[in-house]
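Repro:
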Amino acid sequence: MLEKIEIIYMGFSLEVLEKLLKSEKFDIKYIICPAHRITKEIIIFSEQYKIKLELVKNTEEIEEIIYTKVENIKNILMYKFDYIINSNILKNINVYNIHPGSLNENRGRNPIERVLLKGEKTTEITLYKISSKIDLGEIVSKKIINIGIKDCS
């Protein structure tokens, strides 16, 4: 069996945290969550699985946590994160983002809403290594998702 990849999860999706926990590929060492997005469920999750939880209010706090509290973790996985990552962090750590849309057609905020408003029948979920430009970087994986009638209601 391969050794699990230690990661910092940055975001506020309990569903993603649960999937990462069940995965045989990842070992979540930290959760960094925007302070204004924290939920009771994420607090309980971090306590139950003994994962360190840090709440942040700005980009400077992210950098402080990364450089002072996190040791030897070289991978960050982001989903639903409100802050732009400082380019200094990108020089030292692999930062990946899960984007719920095509980076070619639906960069930026609210890609799901844009797809639904356009009446499209499919969308993508894209995993990419972020760069200093928003929603740009090396695509690692993408998956086409069918949009059903229930998704639009």
